[in-house]
């Protein structure tokens, strides 16, 4: 049968990962020295980037749309279960809307993850409409370029891997948002970042320790000061940080 008449692949599954059940910790014996806190403490319970479950990587995507010239920049950041940088990408793209730009970012992220052999992936976008369209829209024959891209994204859902797509708040997508502003040239070629730009150093550290990021996407002076102190402590322990 011609593939065009087959039903579309199912939308990406979304499996919420429940938090681990609390366990009771016995009190320390008397005269026992206090246990030092972990080196990367979680300093906030608010909205921020969350690490993926063990064995998974998390791939965040974002896009910046320029209405006047119908030109956008897209980016993605991939990190492992410890929040360590694996790769990133950025590129200029032609797009007719912010929705299309966000959609292209998701497609490029899926393609890169598959080509790099990653098979347990959680992809996050802060565009709820893009996530919903990919997960729910039924397309037998695309009528326009947007539907072609949606169908291409859905096609990755039928491949032999564990790939989940979900929406995240803007506060949880700060690193990908920052990378949309770090284009290496005016070219429309996709650039893959094997190492993060220096300007993302504090942002990645903030994500790793669970620091809240304001919705406008800029760390305040107090947060920057805390991160610089932590970065110096890492270097003093000969622990590499970007």
UniProtKB/TrEMBL annotation:
<dbReference type="GO" id="GO:0003676">
    <property type="term" value="F:nucleic acid binding"/>
</dbReference>
<dbReference type="InterPro" id="IPR012337">
    <property type="entry name" value="RNaseH-like_sf"/>
</dbReference>
<dbReference type="InterPro" id="IPR036397">
    <property type="entry name" value="RNaseH_sf"/>
</dbReference>
<dbReference type="InterPro" id="IPR053151">
    <property type="entry name" value="RNase_H-like"/>
</dbReference>
<dbReference type="InterPro" id="IPR044730">
    <property type="entry name" value="RNase_H-like_dom_plant"/>
</dbReference>
<dbReference type="GO" id="GO:0004523">
    <property type="term" value="F:RNA-DNA hybrid ribonuclease activity"/>
</dbReference>
<protein>
    <recommendedName>
        <fullName>RNase H type-1 domain-containing protein</fullName>
    </recommendedName>
</protein>
<feature type="domain" description="RNase H type-1">
    <location>
        <begin position="53"/>
        <end position="185"/>
    </location>
</feature>
<dbReference type="InterPro" id="IPR002156">
    <property type="entry name" value="RNaseH_domain"/>
</dbReference>
<dbReference type="Pfam" id="PF13456">
    <property type="entry name" value="RVT_3"/>
</dbReference>
């Amino acid at each position: 049968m011609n593939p065009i008449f087959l039903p579309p692949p199912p939308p990406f599954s979304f499996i919420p990962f429940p938090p681990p059940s609390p366990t009771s910790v016995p009190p320390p014996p008397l005269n026992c020295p206090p246990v030092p806190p972990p080196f990367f403490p979680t300093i906030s319970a608010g909205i921020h980037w969350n690490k993926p479950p063990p064995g998974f990587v998390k791939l965040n995507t974002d896009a910046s749309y320029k209405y006047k010239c119908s030109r956008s920049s897209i980016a993605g950041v991939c990190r492992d279960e410890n929040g360590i940088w694996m790769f990133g990408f950025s590129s200029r793209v032609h797009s007719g809307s912010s929705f299309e730009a966000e959609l292209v970012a998701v497609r490029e992220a899926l393609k890169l993850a598959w080509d790099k052999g990653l098979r347990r992936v959680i992809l996050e976008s802060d565009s709820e409409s893009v996530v919903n369209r990919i997960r729910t829209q039924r397309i037998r024959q695309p009528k326009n370029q947007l539907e072609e891209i949606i169908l291409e994204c859905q096609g990755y859902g039928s491949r032999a891997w564990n790939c989940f797509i979900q929406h995240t708040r803007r506060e949880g997508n700060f690193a990908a948002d920052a990378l949309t502003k770090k284009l290496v040239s005016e070219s429309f070629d996709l650039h893959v970042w094997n190492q993060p730009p220096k300007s993302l150093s504090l942002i990645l550290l903030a994500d790793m320790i669970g620091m809240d990021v304001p919705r406008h996407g800029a760390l305040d002076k107090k947060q920057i000061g805390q991160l610089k102190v932590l970065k110096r402590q890492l270097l003093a322990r000969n622990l590499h940080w970007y």
